[in-house]
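Reviewer 2 asked us to include a model.

Predict the structure of this chain.
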Amino acid sequence: MRSTRRTAWLLVGGLGLLACAAMAQTPARFADNMAERTRACMACHGDQGRAGPDGYYPRLAGKPAGYLHNQLRNFAQGRRHYELMARLIDPLTDDYLGEMARYFSALDLPYPAPSASNAITPERLAKGQKLVTQGDASRGLPACTQCHGTRLTGVKPNVPGLLGLPLDYLNAQLGAWQTGQRKALAPDCMAEVVKRIPAEDLIAVSSWLARQPLPADTHPAAQSPQGKPLPQALRCGSAPELHGGKP
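Predicted model (structure tokens):
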């Protein structure tokens, strides 16, 4: 009898070990949610879309959903050019791109401290600050704050913030607009703005922005600042709310 019981226990123990081994070899199932589906994005854009470490892959977390959706559309429709992005989103529907945009927009994560350290004179930084906060009436340039919000953290639903971005990324994107490599839905207000700013002043603007700490409230503003309406030449096809309606 004892021998029979011992044999039975050994069989039970052996089966248990086999079951554990089988479980260990079976890969865990991924959760069926957007956090898992967007892991490919994080290889470049950092954990939870906090930004890549090299300065060229921007933050996604917390940006206005409409802006993120517009940028995905721009890659899908050829207004922005980066083959890896185009390949990643080519199989996806526009509705799915919108889901991705809303997911990243809802992530409420702290921003890193500014880290720009390029050599630039105080006079050039002051020039950058003036263009950002006051514009230049002689060139027909509005202040950046007129569209991007008084705190420069963006405006819902379609206007991005300008703070918390690496200097290299700001320079690359402003340069891309200047050369026509980056475009937006027509009429393209940023392309028109950048045409009116000399290269040295663009560097002054990006250098000043990249040095600014984030305000206590880093969320995009609920509505654009009240002020003088933008001229017809600076209408924004991707942000019609800046003009009170569709372009």
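Residues 34-105 form a domain with the Cytochrome Bc1 Complex; Chain D, domain 2 fold (CATH 1.10.760.10). Residues 115 and 211 are 7 Å apart (CA to CA). We have added this to the supplementary material.
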